Amino acid sequence: MALVTLRAPSTLDLPPGFRAVPLRESGDAFAHACRTAAEEGAGTLVWVRRFDLAEFAVILEPDQPLAEARKAFFMGMNATADAIAALCPPERSVAFAFPDAIRFDGGLVGGGRLGWPKRCAEDEVPDWLVFAASVRVSFSGLMEPGQAPTAAALDEEGFEGVGPAMLVESFARFLLRAVDIVQHQGFAPVVADYVQRLAKDRPGDTLSIAPDGDLIIRPAVGDMERRIGFLAGLTAAAWLDRDTGGPKL
Q1: What is the DSSP letter of 213?
Q2: Is there a domain that residue 131 lies in?
Q3: Where is each BPL/LPL catalytic domain found (predicted)?
Q4: pTM beyond 0.85
Q5: Closest CA to 58 of 165, 217, 151, 176
Q6: Per the domain annotation, does 222 fall within a domain?
């Protein structure tokens, strides 16, 4: 029997305003985008040509101070979740674990990251931001089905015929729509949509995002409200396997 080597496509069909920069399978989309953001400019979409993982990063040029502009992270997370939801089987759920993990039907399937210039102060407008995400499309022989019950891969969840390129293309279209919303209405609708997808520890909890991006949890009864740090969560990137560039198993 002949062996067939799976290869990711070499091009993307992106909406106007985006420019694709492909990397080889061993590339790091987030690191590359952060390193080249000042030269490449807004709309540059870096993606890694892998068949097992949708790994991509987009460069943004905000016009707000960093403390406010950082909310673009919620915009990118929404666009990633919308891309997954648009391609998934009916009645299946995409949820967030604050701030940056993406779960599908409860299993960890991906996550997002945010980069900005290191020397930019909170009250300064950053020259650029980078939103990046990784979504596991296939376990790619790393494990047998059922060995990692807390992890998920799209091809194990009924996403027939959905490859990384299709997911990245869908993300770009949803991100364009989110940018339009922010330009006309500000970040409030974007943050509200993000909160709707946040997983709750208890059904009665009320969740909200503070002006600095922190998560506020108000229980229905009993305990006092809790605050979970936004920046600390982004720095930790607890969902990320730094050796593979994808979500942890």
Answers
A1: S
A2: yes
A3: 14-195
A4: yes
A5: 176
A6: yes
Is 219 strand, coil or helix?
A: coil
Q: Which two tokens stand for residue 237?
A: 């990137």
User: Which residues lie below 8 Å from residue 208, measured CB to CB, with a gap of 6+?
Assistant: 195, 215, 216, 218
Helix (H, G, I), strand (E, B) or coil at 26: coil
Q: What share of the chain is helix, strand, coil (3-state, %, to 5)?
A: 30, 25, 45
Residue pair 230/215 in contact by the 8 Å Cβ criterion: yes
Place of tokens 């940018």: 179
Residue 206 resides in a domain: yes
Output the six-digit token pair for 76: 């990118």
CATH code of the domain in which 238 resides: 3.30.930.10
pLDDT in tens, the chain (249 residues): 222 333 445 579 999 999 999 999 989 999 999 999 999 999 999 999 998 999 999 999 999 999 999 999 999 999 999 999 998 877 788 999 999 999 998 899 999 999 999 999 999 999 999 999 999 998 876 666 566 788 998 888 777 777 899 999 999 999 999 999 999 999 999 999 999 999 998 888 999 999 999 999 999 877 789 999 999 999 999 999 998 889 998
Domain contains 5: no
Contacts for 184 with CB less than 8 Å, ≥ 6 apart = none
What total of structural domains would you count in the chain? 1
